[in-house]
Amino acid sequence: MPTPGSIASLGPIMQQAYLPRDFDAALEYWTKTMGVGPFFLLEDIRLGDMTCMGEPTDAVFAVAIAYWGDIQIELVRPQNDAPAHYTGKYAVTDGLHHTCHVVPDIAAARQTVIDAGGTIVVEGKVGADGHVFYADPGFGPGGLIEFIQLGAGGAEFFAMMQAASVDWDGSDPLRKIG
């Protein structure tokens, strides 16, 4: 059992995210070598009221998401060079970039991270009623943690992706959403 009030007490890791230098090669690795897929591509992501280190930013990025059993695999592709969790000192490529936890109360998770001495790197809104933040709990680059409070339809969206991975036969490895 994690220590009460610790970052680990906020819940289990549900995602491993990577920031590959070569997005297409990473996609090929995950689908062909690892057999993970299909990936769902979401482009032109702009978080509402997005800030980076407390300052407004207009970062835009794409993600490709697939499931490996119960673990979500995310590949991140920046679409501009605005300040974000994938630029500057946090631009750790070709290795684990961040993990993600789904939380029921984003404000409580944020306070837990602050109380633990963590730094909020990026935060913003996801859709009409979802919220997200990326924090450096003290590990530094390569150790970011994403915390997300899913909005309406978020859990169902992830469930659809996970269901597609069950008995996936390798066909149609990248499916665009939107």
Automatic annotation (TrEMBL):
SUPFAM superfamilies documented for this protein: Glyoxalase/Bleomycin resistance protein/Dihydroxybiphenyl dioxygenase (SSF54593)
One Pfam family this sequence matches: Glyoxalase_4
InterPro entries noted in UniProt: Glyas_Bleomycin-R_OHBP_Dase, VOC_core
Domain (VOC) ranges: 9-150
This protein's name: VOC family protein
Biological source species: Croceicoccus ponticola
Lineage of producing organism: Bacteria, Pseudomonadati, Pseudomonadota, Alphaproteobacteria, Sphingomonadales
